[in-house]
Specification:
The structure is a single chain. The chain is built from 13 helices and 6 strands. The strands form 3 sheets. It has a two-stranded antiparallel ribbon with strand order 1-2. Strands 3-4 form a two-stranded antiparallel ribbon. A hairpin with a 2-residue loop joins strand 1 and strand 2. Helix 10 runs antiparallel to helix 11. It is elongated and about 80 Å long. The two termini are 37 Å apart.
């Protein structure tokens, strides 16, 4: 859940670079003549993405291979991505790599848990092949987020996952992920969604859909389990003489000062620990963990 700037390259440029990799002249001309108004296609996509109505775009089923635009079939448009956009020996690969680095290595879909390894089609190319090489539809992401989503896409606004390029700042600046501390040895963090009351129902549903579709509850809990021993060790050592309130203040300060987005799992973890009286009262003596 990290906001990203739109890729600098537009749809027309990406098309031209991909098409330039086609060796057969007549085939190349067929692709070029099909996209005489790439700007209009891109503008329509951007308008729908901003309005969160991409779910209403016409889609084709996975098994069908209809004509999509001019004389080009779905398979032709998908091939434009797999054979002429992704391969490292093609000119369009430069665009692929440029889009990947915009996320600074951290997957925006899972809030940086995973490292960017590939590009995800926000609208899956098997169902929406027209946008196969549109930069605005290509999201840098980790392999887990890419594989978990596969070809699934919402059929209603309330089920649409977040679009890092187009969605409103509220989804990235307002806090909507929280956690509870499970009293166990060692403690466990359980993450959940609680959107602001001021949001309308569709916004609340969308963040819940994003949280569920990308399995963020489990991912965040696993990250917290690996990170929590460091905080417990701090309590045992440098803060062993601190009162529960002082320890709570320390954790709260950590939550506020970390240079991560507000819904980052680590910021949420420290806020949850700071608010939990049981956790702050624990001495975490070595013998209790053995």
């Amino acid at each position: 859940m990290k906001k990203l700037s739109l890729p600098a390259v537009n749809f027309a440029t990406a098309l031209n670079e991909a098409i330039s990799g086609i060796g057969d002249v007549s085939q190349r001309q067929t692709y070029q003549s099909a996209f005489l108004d790439a700007h209009a296609i891109e503008t329509h996509y951007a308008d729908c993405a901003t309005a969160a109505t991409l779910h209403a775009q016409p889609r084709v089923t996975t098994l069908d291979d209809p004509i999509i635009i001019a004389h080009l079939r779905k398979s032709d448009l998908m091939r434009l991505y797999t054979q002429y956009f992704v391969p490292k020996d093609k000119a369009a690969r430069r665009i692929y790599e440029d889009i990947k680095v915009t996320a600074n290595g951290k997957c925006p879909l899972c809030g940086g848990v995973g490292h960017v390894r590939t590009l995800d089609h926000y609208l899956p190319k098997s169902n929406f092949p027209l946008y196969s090489v549109m930069p605005a539809n290509l999201i840098p992401c980790c392999r887990d987020c890419n594989s978990e989503k596969l070809n699934a896409f919402a059929g209603a606004m309330k089920d649409q996952t977040l679009h890092p390029y187009f969605d409103h700042d509220r989804f990235f600046d307002d806090k909507w992920i929280y956690a509870n501390v499970i009293q166990s040895s060692p403690p466990v963090l359980e993450y959940f969604v609680r959107p602001p009351e001021s949001w309308d129902s569709s916004h609340k549903s969308r963040v819940k859909a994003h949280f569920d579709d990308y399995g963020l509850a489990d991912k965040f809990s696993v990250e917290a389990a690996a990170d929590l021993p460091e905080t417990i060790q701090t309590r045992r050592t440098s803060m062993v003489m601190s009162s529960p309130q002082e320890f709570s203040n320390y954790l709260s300060e950590k939550s506020r000062t970390l240079s991560f987005p507000v819904n980052n799992w680590r910021r949420v973890m420290f806020a949850a620990l700071a608010a939990d009286e049981w956790f702050c009262e624990q001495e975490f003596l070595e013998s209790r963990d053995n």
